[in-house]
Amino acid sequence: MRIGLITPEPGHPLLAATAALLAPDHAVEVLDPLAPGDAPRSPADVYLLKSKTPRALGLARDLERRGVPVVNSAAATGLCQDRTEMAELALRAGLPFAPTRTFDSLAACASGAPLAWPAVVKSRFSHRGDLVARVDDPVGLGKLAADWPREPVVVQEFAPNDGWDHKLWAIGDQVFAALRRSELSPEGRGPTRPLAVDELPAGWADLVRRAGAVFSLDVYGVDILDTGDGTPLIVDINAFPGIRGQAGAPRALAALALGRAAGGADGGS
Fold this sequence. Notes:
Dna Ligase, domain 1, D-amino Acid Aminotransferase, Chain A, domain 1, 3 domains
């Protein structure tokens, strides 16, 4: 089999470990979205889309039009970049997602829109270095708007929690988990702590798989807060996150890639 990676960083730990598992029996090819040129004339049997840039999505769409399976699809990857569309789809599907309001700019949000305090303000479009901040009052919001006046944003009511994000990831049906100090906590983001899946509250692993089905994702992350007594609140869904340091993740990804390659464009979820 020929396995393609759409990424500018083939040395990413998850991708590098997956490639090492595949290399003895299969060809692993890198399609760098930063390099000039179109999709290859002779494409691989499957591509893993580990990039969210417009060019990477364009390459993925081209391959999909030619019947080549891409994990995750360009459409699913793009959807997870828009936090407004993400929230709307999740809530329509009945997922326990944080209620979300959208503003064309942070300046418009700060101009007098009634908000419940504290609030969490995020860039509407997910990108490296985007805005994620807690604001406690109109004064704090005004200060934030002075730095990010034109940024399209979403606003969510701050949910009381223990200060830890439950980082849950899935590759196919296999779920991985960890705890990470929330970047919104007073202590700031800290190291990631291991968490066995069987230590999760009942039903959380199935909730992750349900989110993947709703968003048509094969490799994805779901950030969940425990708002008390194990009650989950989803605050973010990510297409093809890093999943660093999770034993078994490279093997699961290699198996998924081979399964999709063998199944062609109609294989997988």
